[in-house]
Amino acid sequence: MGEKEKHIEYYPNGVKKEEGYYIDGNKDGKWTEWWDDGKTKLEKTYKNGKRDGKWTRWYGKWTLLYLWGPRWDEEHFIKKKEWEKTYKDGKIDGLCTYWYVSGKKDREEIWKDGNFRKSTQWHQNGQEKVEVTFKDGKPYGTSTYYNTDGSVKEVKDWD
Fold first, then answer.
1. Cα angle: 41, vertex 44, 48; to 5 degrees
2. What is the pLDDT of residue 102?
3. Which of 82, 84, 138, 144 has the fewest Cβ atoms within 10 Å of its own Cβ atom?
């Protein structure tokens, strides 16, 4: 193992913005980013300068305030995940999950070695919206699209 150097960056207001380590000039291990109010923004991992492992991002208060307007309050801002992804050797690999601000699942994606394999999406009410399988970066097979009440909206054959 080479030389390990700690990196810390701050916002002008004095709140920590980012923290992690460099080894031989490359990001390595767990890195954390914070919003300017001190809440966690992103937890990520690197291996030899490449994205590697689980990455998790949380909504910021300004996003919540914009989306929810006057209904927003501090109670709603307790670690609301925006997305979670997995990387391997710098490429996205495995399950990626995205959430609506409400906390309900927005979509899941499956990736292998940086290649998009499958996407499942849900309406904000929790009903499935569509599931699409990909091959060589393009949709293939049959996909069924659903309305918010669960009824079939469209069936699409990609072949």
1. 150
2. 81
3. 138
**Partners of 53 in the beta sheet?**
87
CA 80 – CA 100 distance, rounded (Å):
9
pTM, entire model: 0.85
| 114-139 confidence digits (pLDDT tens) | 999 999 999 999 999 999 999 988 99
Q: Which helix (H) or strand (E) holds 40?
A: strand 40-47
Q: What are the tens digits of pLDDT across the range 25-79? A: 999 999 999 999 899 999 999 999 999 999 999 988 766 555 555 555 555 555 6
Q: Which two tokens stand for residue 79?
A: 């670690």
* Phi/psi at 64 (5° precision): -65, -40
Question: Residue holding tokens 């208060």?
Answer: 61
Dihedral class, residue 74 (left if φ above 0, else alpha if ψ from -120 to 50, else beta):
alpha
